[in-house]
């Protein structure tokens, strides 16, 4: 790893590097991502993880479950992209995942080491992640649960925004933070397609004068029994009592 990555995983996201395994390190129960992100795999997730939430609305179940995958791919893939200018092999056709007993993703499994980015422009450097990792995963999750894809992209955008904020706290990482911020200001990507991560978060002043991040699209976790609204919810009714964010997701 680069010096900046070492510092990052020793500080703001301590221990996150342990969430990245090779196949020889992974347990035999690890899933191929292409098997998990399939009709049968998603039905398995909804059935077993949904049981943790009294088999509530499957759209909300999928939204909540997606956060663990999107968080891990952000805190590994985007961190390597921005801090080391390298691309992890996270495309679904090559990726594996380790699931816990609760069906949440414990770790990612990769075939080999990272490679140098082919293009470091902000509008191009994230294309492999968008087209080969997040795009097909989000399409699959949306198709098999009924949740709107934009809600899942908003989940992802929250983690990208959080990661960029953490980069600002890391000495010598300002250039990386700025590259991440630039991604979220672009309406279109280098291939001419709409940027699904365009302005996912609004930073607004609250009543106390502090800046707080507000999502543009609700994650609908409030549809599940006992969860309520997250602290970043854009809905006016979010002032209702809230419960804590789901365990194990940083800034979830």
From TrEMBL:
Pfam hit, one: FhuF_C
Domain Ferric siderophore reductase C-terminal, first and last residues per copy: 215-235
Organism: Chromohalobacter canadensis
Protein name, entry field: Ferric iron reductase protein FhuF
MF term (GO), any: 2 iron, 2 sulfur cluster binding
Aerobactin siderophore biosynthesis IucA/IucC-like C-terminal domain sequence ranges: 63-210
InterPro entries (UniProt xref): Fe_iron_reduct, FhuF_C, IucA/IucC-like_C
